[in-house]
Design brief:
With 493 residues, this protein is an all-alpha fold. The protein contains 22 helices and two strands.
């Protein structure tokens, strides 16, 4: 396979059909495996619905995959288009198990739950996940686990026919648009990242099963923790679990917010953590958040519980996991404002977390300080650095543009959600609207007020759920791949 600089009119439909079809086929195969699990768990009725969903999805995926033939080349533009469209398509097919089993019979709710899964957001319309059949609970957790490292990357790694063209897809899907190459061939890099991902998930499952969780709960929480997704098997998230379980989940949330390429390098040289500038900033932000939150909680709670809730909540929010041990929506207003602020940080680039990301926060801060110095010394020449690396002007402009678009979408989304509420006569307030949009765009899940950790998104009007679903996908794909779908330049010869 060759990589070209510009897509042709003829090659674009073939590339889209081939890449999206392969992703849909992979999702369908996962459904078939889940159907087998349902029969093994003694849930034949549920298994039948999942089996039907899987059969339809695989058939449609293979048809898309083969109808125009294999893609012989893929450009940057085609990569962005394929990724942007694929997440909408796989979310539509991923909703079929909920619909065919009747666990979520409403199309809007099923799509919302599926998007929340694949984007690792964790927002839910399910009042009590414990009432779901276990096979559906596994599928629900599996959507987050697959979405964690990216179903597109999974497909590329599994399809050698895409060859090095997979790098173009990774540029569209991976945080920051610049995948960390561990090997000259991207397919080998993807395999090593998945090795770390699977290893962390397995270790988390073993440690959780050693506590108060049964095998089903341990596996589901291991998948959703490593994916920084936040889907739980309980309506109270992880608040009802033991202190041991909560600390284990805290540790793995923190690890999942770290660049997985850094984890792989650390297998041979653990000192790479201390030498990495972004890791140091990531850790410092979490520690600072813990100190501030703990200081606010200590006034009303006993020390041990306050510190534990502070550590868990800050790590959960910064890594955009969304698990909760307490209802932060009931905290004092100053702490709720801090909660919203933590939603805009995010983990490291190359991790499974969402939101703005640590490296962007660091570079934006350095750039702002550099601008202040330039006001004092107009003739001075100032270079923005992150660690020892000089940040090129084009990368700085890209990061500033990303943040501008991010805040624009946050404000616009809040206005639209509030507008929908005003016309649908719902009881949504501004705090709910703003925090729900921040949680959707940052792939966090629970927010404040009516959509806090102890509530669900079921009360949101149906247009609002479609809006939030779109924001979840936009946030998961780092904004640009989705926005580019609406530009003429992407489709122009």
């Amino acid at each position: 396979m060759t990589i070209v600089s510009e897509p042709s009119v003829r090659s674009l439909p073939r590339t889209l059909s081939y890449v999206i079809g392969s992703a849909v086929t992979a999702v369908g195969a996962s459904m078939l495996a889940t159907a087998g699990l349902a029969y093994a768990l003694g849930e034949p009725d549920t298994g039948q619905g999942i089996l039907l969903a899987g059969a339809i999805t695989v058939a449609c995926g293979v048809l898309m995959w083969r109808i125009l033939g294999a893609a012989t080349s893929i450009s940057v533009k085609e990569g962005f288009a394929a990724v942007g469209l694929a997440w909408f398509v796989i979310s539509a097919f991923g909703a079929l198990p909920y619909l065919f089993t009747g666990t979520i019979p409403n199309v809007t709710d099923a799509f919302f739950e599926t998007v929340s899964g694949f984007t690792t957001t964790g927002s839910t319309v399910v009042a009590n996940p414990a009432d779901l059949p276990r096979s559906i609970g596994v599928w629900r957790g599996f959507t987050q686990w697959v979405g964690g490292m990216g179903v597109i990357i999974l497909s590329v790694a599994a399809l050698p026919l895409l060859g090095t063209g997979g790098l173009q897809l990774a540029r569209a899907e991976l945080p920051g648009g610049k995948p960390d190459r561990l090997t000259p061939r991207f397919k080998e890099t993807a395999k090593r990242l998945w090795f770390v991902y699977v290893g962390l998930t397995a270790l988390a499952a073993v440690l959780l099963a050693a506590g108060d969780l049964d095998v089903y709960q341990a596996v589901v929480h291991a998948m959703t923790t490593t994916a920084t997704g936040g889907f739980s098997t309980q309506a109270t998230s992880v608040a009802s679990f033991s202190t041991y379980t909560q600390w284990v989940i805290t540790v793995f949330m923190f690890l999942a917010g770290v660049n997985f390429a850094l984890h792989y390098k650390a297998l041979r040289h653990p000192s790479v953590y201390a030498r990495d500038s972004e890791f140091r900033l990531y850790t410092a932000l979490i520690v600072a958040g813990i100190v501030l939150v703990a200081g606010g909680l200590l006034a009303d709670n006993e020390p041990a519980g306050a510190i534990r809730d502070a550590v868990f909540t800050v790590v959960s929010l910064v890594t955009t996991t969304g698990f909760a041990t307490s209802d932060w929506g009931s905290w004092r207003p100053a702490l709720q404002i801090l909660v919203i602020g933590l939603m805009f940080l995010g983990g490291m680039a190359g991790s499974t977390s969402g939101s703005v990301k640590t490296f962007r926060v660091g570079i934006l801060a350095k750039a702002a300080f550099s601008d202040l110095r330039r006001l004092v010394y107009p003739r001075g020449v100032f270079t923005v650095r992150f660690g020892r690396d000089r940040i090129p002007d084009h990368l700085l402009e890209s990061i500033q543009s990303f943040f501008l678009f991010y805040m624009f979408l946050f404000m616009t989304g809040t206005f639209l959600l509030a507008f929908i509420d005003a016309n649908m006569s719902e009881s949504l307030n501004l705090v709910t609207a703003a925090s729900a949009v921040a949680a959707a765009l940052g792939n966090i899940g629970p927010a404040l007020a009516d959509v806090g950790p102890t509530a669900t998104y079921a009360s949101i009007a149906w247009p609002g759920k479609w809006l939030l679903s779109g924001l979840m996908i936009v946030g998961r794909l780092e904004i640009f791949p989705v926005l580019l779908l609406f530009t003429r330049d992407l489709w122009r010869r």
